[in-house]
């Protein structure tokens, strides 16, 4: 019995081991079946055939009669955000394209599909080509957008034109001026220039419209005015030479609606409210002072909050003039009340003094003399013969003793 039981256990163990090994082998075979087959080695070498062996990517492409190579440049602005007035910069998301011709490359015909005039290669291929070393003169940060890889590509055309396209974002510096704030318009130029090749080696040109804006682009506090493009050359002392330069001027016009509601309308109402003190009685001193001081403190609190929205500058802004005008109006109302109150007190005191003087004069007044009659028959009534000549008569008191009989 023991031998039979031992044989059954041995058979069962061997069967389980066989099934486990079968499952492992089946999984391994399936995993190998899922691995893609290697590509044709000839297809992998097609991109290598584009660049000949004598190609040197550090040397610019040859041109006819040694003329400077032309590089076409264009920008498609997708979004503009974070216009920071404190740091005086803004962030811009854009699609950037550069095009130039390189006669040294050789594109096999079998790489083009039927009816296509170009082929698109990954961005890694761009590292093997000559690159125009363009940069933004006034940029703080420039980066290529990435998700799982960099959003860039290289397109090759039959006429040996190379197009490099990339999705980029940049933080661009802008020298802002706030003299007319909040009715200001900020002009922010963006300049593109080659770092190594002067105007005798490379010329930059705008491609087509040059710079375009996305129709969905909207800003909260600004209106974007029509862009201005320039193709120019400038001397750069740091690089000791004249360089071709592309310039685009972004003009941001500040929307006044926000400030009309938040600044101008409330401050105007406060100033008008201070004028109501003119209709109060002059003796209503507590009411007048309370109204005017409250208006003045309201303006101070309002404008203190507004000044925190923009950086402190050394010159006077339009908003400062408005603030000063509102405060002077309210302060003038308070000053008018004080002046009128003082003058009214003096006028009242003068009137009282005049009344007292008039009353005193009325009590002590003496009738003026009149000329004597010209008729001689009345002359004997006047014992004082010089009455017509003298302006006054000396009067003397005469004491008469009267005896009373009882």
UniProtKB/TrEMBL annotation:
PROSITE patterns according to UniProt: NEUROTR_ION_CHANNEL
Domain Neurotransmitter-gated ion-channel ligand-binding: 53-255
GO molecular function annotation: chloride channel activity; GABA-A receptor activity; ligand-gated monoatomic anion channel activity; transmitter-gated monoatomic ion channel activity
Main localization category: membrane
Subcellular compartments: Cell membrane; Membrane
Transmembrane region(s): 260-279, 285-306, 318-340
Alphabetical list of InterPro entries matching this protein: GABAA/Glycine_rcpt, Neur_chan_lig-bd, Neur_chan_lig-bd_sf, Neur_channel, Neuro-gated_channel_TM_sf, Neuro_actylchol_rec, Neurotrans-gated_channel_TM, Neurotransmitter_ion_chnl_CS
Domain of life of the native organism: Eukaryota
GO cellular component terms, semicolon-separated: plasma membrane
Leader sequence segment: none
Keywords recorded for this protein, A-Z: Cell membrane, Ion channel, Ion transport, Membrane, Signal, Transmembrane, Transmembrane helix, Transport
Membrane topology: Multi-pass membrane protein
Record domain Neurotransmitter-gated ion-channel transmembrane: where: 264-359
Family as reported in the entry's similarity comment: Belongs to the ligand-gated ion channel (TC 1.A.9) family.
Record protein name field: Uncharacterized protein
Organism field: Aromia moschata
Higher taxonomy: Eukaryota, Metazoa, Ecdysozoa, Arthropoda, Hexapoda
